[in-house]
TrEMBL record:
<dbReference type="InterPro" id="IPR012334">
    <property type="entry name" value="Pectin_lyas_fold"/>
</dbReference>
<dbReference type="InterPro" id="IPR052063">
    <property type="entry name" value="Polysaccharide_Lyase_1"/>
</dbReference>
<keyword id="KW-0325">Glycoprotein</keyword>
<dbReference type="GO" id="GO:0046872">
    <property type="term" value="F:metal ion binding"/>
</dbReference>
<keyword id="KW-0479">Metal-binding</keyword>
<protein>
    <recommendedName>
        <fullName>Polysaccharide lyase family 1 protein</fullName>
    </recommendedName>
</protein>
<dbReference type="InterPro" id="IPR011050">
    <property type="entry name" value="Pectin_lyase_fold/virulence"/>
</dbReference>
């Protein structure tokens, strides 16, 4: 190759390198401007949304005892950051006091022998922590907790948190409390039967992804989401108010796609499927259905008018449409079949059966014992 040819080749390589560098710069700038995480690996295969950046822990730790405290217990397991927690035991862990998680924790509830594992009686807190992954885990507070200011799961001011295939019931303050939380996903989970305030979830700051969850029998906050939000393929049953923003002064955008709202015996106004959403908010709404007639048949109609929010003609977040792979009807079937911790226990089976009545059964409760289930309403594991 002569000198002129070599110079031309090097010049082309340099031009190509500049082009790639410019492209990468533009992509990074785009991701940051849209609030998208720059993530090298998912929290786990199949993780979605803003919480998928959570790194969790890597140091193995096996829970070998259902006791409240001591060596080999869940409380012991989460007391040190960086742990990847598995379970050699199954059943309820009956807490006498709240449990605070450390940062960089992975809780692999799916590793527990059948019929699975969960906690009862007190709050699990990830407040002010980061990089939390919790999968296939049951969190059931209930009135065994005398502190009415606590929630079933609290992640106030936490960052990079994902709950997947969890079952969160009998929350006293909220089922999920997440004021000031950043980069959160709640996916494939059951959030049901809150007592006390009777609220589902309260999240502020964000961004947040609510994906393929089953929300059942709450007075309000399904969720209350004061954040840039993705709300995709959820099912809400027997609500008094469902998707809520509470006329906040904050300016947020909401992608609300292919969700199913189903009225139940406690629903006083089916049109409160979207509640307190004012002109400060921007919303893209598509494919949502509302079944308001309580006739035992799934026969919803289009429900895409989001209060007085400014209407967006396309999703605010470019990943939202790709997440919405199911229609609202298909989302109902999928969520009924797969949401929550596996295998399904008595509490989740009870919750799902009320939804399947499609308007005929269900109640907003103040005491888990009113479910009629054994073990003071907690059911048995």
């Amino acid at each position: 190759m002569n000198t002129s040819a070599r110079l031309l080749r090097y010049e082309r390589i340099l031009d190509s390198s500049r082009t790639m560098a410019q492209l990468m710069y533009l992509l990074v700038s785009l991701f940051l401007s849209l609030g998208l995480p720059l993530v090298s690996a998912l929290a786990f295969p199949g993780a979605v949304g803003f919480g998928s950046v959570a790194t969790g822990g890597t140091t193995p730790f096996v829970v070998t005892s259902l006791a409240d405290s001591g060596t080999g217990t869940f409380r012991d397991a989460v007391s040190v950051s960086g742990r990847n927690i598995t379970f050699a035991v199954s059943g309820y862990i009956n807490l006498a006091s709240p449990v605070s998680l450390s940062s960089s924790i992975t809780v692999n509830g799916q590793t527990a022998p059948s019929p699975g594992v969960g906690i009862m009686g007190r709050e699990i807190s990830a407040s002010d922590k980061s990089n939390i992954i919790i999968r296939n885990f049951r969190m059931r507070q209930g009135n065994l907790d005398s502190d009415t200011g606590k929630s079933a799961f609290n992640m106030g001011h936490a960052s990079n948190v994902i709950l997947d295939h969890c079952s969160v019931e009998y929350g006293v303050w909220d089922s999920i409390d997440a004021v000031g939380a950043v980069n959160v996903t709640v996916s494939n989970s059951i959030i049901a039967l809150p007592i006390g305030q009777q609220f589902g979830a309260h999240l502020e700051t964000g961004p947040v992804t609510w994906y393929r969850n089953l929300w059942v029998s709450a007075h309000n906050r399904q969720p209350l989401t004061k954040a840039n939000s993705q709300y995709i393929n959820n099912v809400v049953y027997n609500y008094q108010a469902a998707y809520t923003v509470a006329n906040t002064g904050g300016l947020f955008s909401h992608d609300i796609i292919n969700n199913y709202f189903i009225a139940g015996p406690s629903t006083t106004s089916a049109n409160d499927d979207y509640f307190q959403i004012n002109t400060n908010q921007k919303a893209f709404a598509s494919g949502n259905l509302l079944d308001s007639n309580k006739d035992g048949v799934l026969n919803g109609v289009a429900a895409n008018t989001i209060g007085s929010a400014v209407v967006l003609t396309s999703p605010w977040n470019p990943t939202s449409q790709g997440l919405a792979t199911l229609s609202a009807a298909a989302a109902y079937a999928s969520v009924i079949a797969t949401a929550g911790a596996s295998p399904r226990d008595q509490v989740d089976a009870f919750v799902v059966s009320t939804v399947q009545s499609l308007g005929k059964t269900g109640a907003i409760i103040t005491n888990q014992a009113s479910t009629g289930l054994g073990n003071n309403g907690y059911g048995t594991l």
